[in-house]
Amino acid sequence: MRKNIKPKNPTSNSTVLLVGRLSGPKNTVLLNILRQVAPRVIRQVSRARFVVVGGPVTEEHRKLEKQFSYLSFEGHQKKLEPYYRKAAVVVGAGRVALEAMNLKRPVVAIGERKYVGPLLPEKIEEAKATNFGDCWDEESFDWAQMVRDLTNLLKSSDVRKKVIQTGYDLVQKEYNMARVFPKMEFLYGQVLLEKNLSSLHELPVLMYHRVSPTAPASSKHNLQISQAEMERHLLFLRDRGFEAIGFEDLLTRKIPRKPIILTFDDGYEDNYRYLFPLLRKHKMKIVMFLLGNRKHKTNFWDAADGEEPAALLKPGQILEMAKSGLVEFGAHSLNHSKLTELGSKEIEREVVGSKKALETFLKKPVLSFAYPYGFTNEKIKKITQVAGFTFGIAVNTGPTRFGKDLLEIRRIHMFPNTSPFKYFKKTSGYYLRYRGLLGK
Ligand SMILES: [Zn+2]
């Protein structure tokens, strides 16, 4: 047990509670607060204390703790509520801000990218737009302003009350429990995901596009596979003991010993006509990536290359497939844009916009995002993660082993007229390690 955060005199509670991960950019922000803000606040409010909850607590943190008597590191805590309740001010972003506001604590919003400040009415839009400071193009931290804000809050119960009211109203109005609850579920999903990943030998992810009734005519991009050939692939995998899963299975159940993920990009109508019956027949699951913008009726983006136009799925077809449990849907941007050619704001619009549109339409969380053309980079991956996607799906990039980078998952491109066996052998070195596949 470390120092108790309970103040000696409850009426003079002046604890500033900081909650968050003590690594990466969050840690950098925290250290800045402790070095540049805390000492100046103490000079004006001598009774103030700074309590940090989160881990990992390193030597550097312990050194600071020794240096400043008003500072304590409590390490990672499973139950945060008692800390929120005892705090005069809670400093944080995202989930921390939401939880504190819900418990009627005054929140000073600061995230990885930006200092937003106390949640007063005039700050609400900024706080929402930046996820309380976690998402912003340019880093923007006004430490002097933070000193003034914290001092004000600690000195004036009127200011605290106003901030409490603003935050509580916001959480009731826009982040009510019906919305927060799936986020809690999501946290449990992350734990299961880690367990699944740690027990995973390998998880190949295959990439398909169109499925046609007969052998495809010429197609520049080799996007089509015939229904008969598709069925041969499914039987091939099943005969070798593979169990086709979706990305959601990684977060919701213990996955089978020999899992595989079959993905289909763009959401072509022929998938409904020629693939879906096969999935029903063989009880196999796939993941399909859809555009968030439902105004697009065909693959307009391939037209410039002389690809024949192909119809995209209609809403009723999508919902029927979703209901079957055999098709998990992921996002594929709003407009099939080359994200690497866009600015941050536009990327965000494509990524966040497609998630929102599909979740509203499907009435369930959308966990995966397939980068159009497989084009991605660190910035795009970060935006995808912040948008709430657990899985970012690439094509020919990313680590060969599944789980090493969930935001850049490499796929095996399945061309027509290549037996899966030959294809695996030819292109996927890592696949050879997969026990049982080449044993036959
Ligand atoms: Zn695509």
Q: What is the domain total for the residues?
A: 2
List cofactors, ions and other ligands. Answer: zinc ion
**Which shape, going by the Cα principal axes?**
elongated
CATH arch. level architecture of the largest domain: Alpha-Beta Barrel
Number of helices, where a helix is a run of at least 4 consecutive DSSP H or I residues: 17
Number of strands: 16
Question: What kind of assembly state do the chains in view correspond to?
Answer: single chain
Mean pLDDT: 87
Unreliable stretches (pLDDT < 50, length at least 5) are: 6-12, 426-430, 432-440
The Cα radius of gyration reads 25 Å
Kindly report the name of the CATH homologous superfamily of the largest domain.
Glycoside hydrolase/deacetylase
**Ends distance:** 58 Å
**Helical content (DSSP H or I, runs of 4+):** 40-55%
Profile the largest sheet: 6 strands, mixed
Strand order of the largest sheet: 3-2-1-4-5-6
Please identify the top-level CATH class of the largest domain: Alpha Beta
CATH topology of the largest domain: TIM Barrel
Strand content: 5-15%
- Helix-strand category: alpha/beta
Description:
With 440 residues, the protein is of the alpha/beta class. It has two domains: 10-175, Glycogen Phosphorylase B (Rossmann fold, 3-Layer(aba) Sandwich), CATH 3.40.50; 182-432, TIM Barrel (Alpha-Beta Barrel), CATH 3.20.20. It has 17 helices and 16 strands. Strands 3-2-1-4-5-6 form a six-stranded mixed beta sheet, sandwiched between helices. Strands 7, 10, 11, 12, 13 and 16 form a six-stranded parallel beta sheet that branches. Strands 8-9 form a two-stranded parallel sheet. The protein starts with 14 loop residues before the first strand and ends in an 8-residue tail after the last helix. The site of zinc ion (ZN) has 5 residues, from loops.
